[in-house]
Specification:
It contains twelve helices and twelve strands. Strand 2 and strand 3 form a beta hairpin. It is globular and about 60 Å long.
């Protein structure tokens, strides 16, 4: 090879090396830039997570979902959740419905009691029953997973929801009658004659739910808090207080829906609850219409939310349809729908039945309910 060709070859090799070095330098800078962006995204995620935690327990409209964890009753698949997720208006527009879902059970398939007054009084639920309840809430193909799927399906018609739908899980009441038969937690055999052992059991339940929720990686759901299933305090005051403190450490809400004038309802914060909704108990009982006004007055006086109450009776009986409309009338007159956080008791699946009904009598009630909820969802969060 002559010197000229050797020179050209050396120049070519040198050029290639310089280009390669430049590319390596660019790639390094790109990697550094990506790392910087990644760090920024992590920081952004941390800020977003903190913001989410700060507002995580803020729910405007929370519907009660019974049967979410047992084999009996309503099979909560994604189709069944549809009318709880979105409402199709007369203008063919889809609006988002409830921003909160309370999953709870009062007793299980074997009639073990999760709270006083339900199930077999001689069969207080044990750890195995509590664990089975958790399993069913998180089982693929039912309950929480199907709600997440229903929301995902609804995005095709309604777009992305304004926020993740917030989930509240009912804590089984640690019944004193279970004595020392509940099971083990924190390495000890619990005896529910000891109030501190009741707290340990509740913490075990909370931690199991938190871990399972994190593992599930739901697309459209966030864990907002827990609910005390007992509608009265009974002999659990110290446990409730301890559980409330424990949940506040995770910025999770502690919810309670006491019956009308249940002891402690005038100052639930002192008991340990962060969110309380008063039951008017007008719909179910032979009490005067003034009960609804009394409930509004009490909620204003003590800074409480309220519960909208109805069940399947509105499908069949005029007196109950009247009570349904009276509730909406009185709440409207008292500005409840603009100022209060609300829960919605619907027995097992009354809203689903209203949605699927072809009876023209049912349509006005379904429309009134849905238009109320969807209008509220477009407002800012209520102060009470």
């Amino acid at each position: 090879m002559n010197l000229h060709r050797k020179g050209l070859l050396l120049s070519l090799i040198t050029g290639i090396c310089l280009c390669f070095g430049f590319l390596l330098s660019c790639k390094k800078n790109e990697i550094n830039d990506r790392a910087s962006v990644k760090d920024k995204l992590k920081a952004s995620d941390r800020i977003a997570e903190q913001t989410t935690l700060t507002s995580n327990n803020k729910i405007r409209d929370m519907v009660l979902i019974y049967g979410g964890g047992t084999e009996k009753g309503q099979d909560w698949d994604f189709y069944s959740f549809h009318p709880y997720v979105v409402y199709k208006t007369e203008q063919q527009v889809y609006d988002w419905m409830f921003d909160g879902f309370l999953f709870l059970e009062l007793n299980d398939d074997w009639n073990y009691s999760f709270t006083l007054g339900h199930g077999d009084p001689n069969k207080p639920a044990q750890k195995a029953n509590w664990a089975t309840l958790i399993d069913k809430y998180f089982e693929v193909g039912r309950s929480l997973h199907e709600l997440d799927q229903a929301i995902d399906d609804a995005t095709w018609s309604a777009g992305q929801p304004p926020s993740k739908r917030k989930i509240v899980i009912g804590i089984p009441e640690p019944l004193t009658s279970v004595a020392n038969n509940w099971g083990m937690a924190e390495g000890i055999w619990l005896n529910f004659q000891n109030p501190s052992h009741k707290t340990i059991a509740c913490k075990w339940f909370i931690n199991e739910v938190r871990a399972r929720f994190s593992s599930a990686a739901f697309r459209h759901l966030s864990l907002a808090g827990f609910y005390w299933i007992g509608e009265s305090v009974e002999d659990n005051a110290s446990t409730i207080s301890s559980v409330g403190t424990y949940l506040s450490g995770y910025n999770l809400s502690f919810n309670w829906i006491p019956w009308w004038q249940s002891p402690g309802y005038t100052n639930p914060g002192a008991l340990g609850f962060s969110e309380t909704y008063l039951q008017p108990n007008y719909f179910f009982y032979n009490v005067p219409l003034s009960r609804l006004q009394d409930a509004c007055n009490a909620a204003n006086t003590y800074g409480l939310g309220l519960e909208v109450e109805f069940d399947d009776n509105i499908l069949y009986f005029d007196p109950y349809r009247t009570k349904f409309n009276q509730t909406f009338d009185v709440f409207g007159q008292n500005n409840v729908f603009d100022t209060k956080k609300l829960t919605y008791y619907q027995s097992e699946n009354t809203i689903l039945k209203l949605w699927s009904s072809t009876n023209p009598i049912h349509k006005p009630m379904y429309k009134r309910l849905c238009e109320t909820v969807t209008r509220r969802q477009k407002l800012g969060l209520p102060s009470l």
